[in-house]
Structure formats: structure tokens, C-alpha cells
Amino acid sequence: MNRLLQHAFTPNQATSIGLLAVAFWSSVVGLIRALSLHMGAVGGAAVMYSLSTLLLLAIFGLPNLRQFSRSYLFWASIFFVGCELCLSLSIGFADNARQAVEVGMVNYLWPTFTIIGAVWFNKQPAKWWIGIGFALSFIGIATVLGGDGGFSLPEIIGNVRTNPLSYIMALLDALFWAAYCTLTARTKAQGNAVGFFFLLVSCILWAKYFAGGYGSLHFDTGAILYAVAAAACMGLGYAVWNIGISCGNMTVLAGASYFIPIFSALISSFLLNAPLSVQFWQGAIMVCIGSGVCWLATQNFSFRRIE
Length: 307
Fold this sequence. Notes:
Helix content: over 70%
Radius of gyration: 19 Å
Shape: globular
Oligomer: single chain
Order of helices and strands: HHHHHHHHHHHHHHH
Number of helices: 15
Strand content: under 5%
Distance between the termini: 18 Å
Number of domains: 1
Mean pLDDT: 84
Low-confidence stretches: 301-307
């Protein structure tokens, strides 16, 4: 795999490979939820991140942490680890399949938050109508959380109250990832420490699992298949995205990434057998449009979901 990463790809080849990350990451929400039903939210996440860590280390090798400043490693670790913990546990602790998809959609506020972070903290030039994109994203999420009632404040409040922990963690996930990306761009960090961050996530999840008395893990056929699939989608997503952003067309890749919420909802609905309402799809489309408007407002801004 290291030889593959070092191969001289043409821009079109690299872009095509990078686009695979969209498919991989779009599958993560449904696979995490399915895995949690077999192994539990904490145990399933611990197994998945452990396998992803091994895969990432096999692909990228051991990270050279001396490339990074101590300050960067400290804050990047907090943001990255916080993001991944909130992502996996918010989905795993969802009350049902429909709620897992909704929680996953809240997570997809990260493109909007990332662009806002680039403008606010990194002084990225932007048009005034970036505010329209920001508003569209939040209206879209509100429509999703309103269930069949659509954009209805009482429905939104009632829905969130059924499981506030999952929804709060999903929002924190988006904020943590935006903070990590903003920090990495601001410090112009070079190298790849994703394997190290995944190792930290795995250790914390195993510590929580053994300290919390979650019972024994059941490695039946379904659990193993979902664990391998989820870990592969997570790890390979980073690998192919790295190829795409290194040698491919970043404009195409960034544009495609804003459709991940739609693809994720489609795949999750199929995997989890969770029918989604017209109102949900309307909200999901608004989230995508809002992220796209924010991106266009920054002109030449391009987002990379990897160090």
C-alpha cells in the first residue's frame, strides 16, 4: 500500500481515487450503527478504531511526531480525539435507526463550521453572503430534527429531548472537527499523524469499555463483518483522500464532499432499514446547499479532511 501511495498518478487518476473517499465516508454512519447493535456503542467503537489504527499504520507507517510542535500535537489530539469519540458514540447511543441517521446529519455541519473557522480565525477572504449558507445549513438541520413536522420548534425540542446526549455529541463532533481543520491549516502542519490520533481514540475507548463494565464482546459473523467494513471505510477513506488532495483536482473533490450528507443518508437508510420522510430529505438538501454556498463565498477556499 505504501508503494501505491508513492506511485506517480496523473491528476485525473488521483481525482478518481480521491472520490472513493466520498463513498467510504458516506458508509460510516450506517456501519457504525449496525456494529453498535452487535457489540454495543463503546465496545463496537473500540474494535472499529483498533482495526482502523492497524490499517492506517500499515498504509502510512509510523508517524514521525517530531515533525509537529508540542502545542500542535496537544490541541490537535484533543480536537481529533474528541471528534472521533463524539462521532462514534453519538451514533451508537442513538435510540433507534432513524435517530442514528438524524444524529449523523447533525455531524455534517462540519463543512460549514470549518469554512466559518477559516474565515474567522485564519482570515480567509469571503463574500458577505456566506451568512446565507450558514443559515441554510442550520435551517436544514432544524428541518431534519423536526421529523415529519419539518421546521417546527416544538417538534425539534421534543425530538432532541428524547436523547439529548446523542444530539449534543453530534454537534460537538462537528465543532471538534472544524477546530482541528482550522488549527491544522493555521499552523500549516506537515506530515501525517492520523495513525497516532486513531491510536489515542482506541486506547480511550478500551479504557472506557473495561472501566464501565459493558460486558463481554460477541464476535459473531455479523459483528466481524461490520467491524471490518467500518474500519476499512474509515481507514481507506483517509488513504484515498490523501492521494486525491496530493495529486488530484481539489475543486472537484471539495465539491463532491459536500454531497456526503445525501449519500450517507441514502446508505444508512438502506443498511438500517430506516425509511426517511420527505421533510428529512428537504433538510438534508438544504445542509448540502448551505455548505456549498459557504464554500463558494470563500472563492478559492478548498477544504482537506486530512492532515
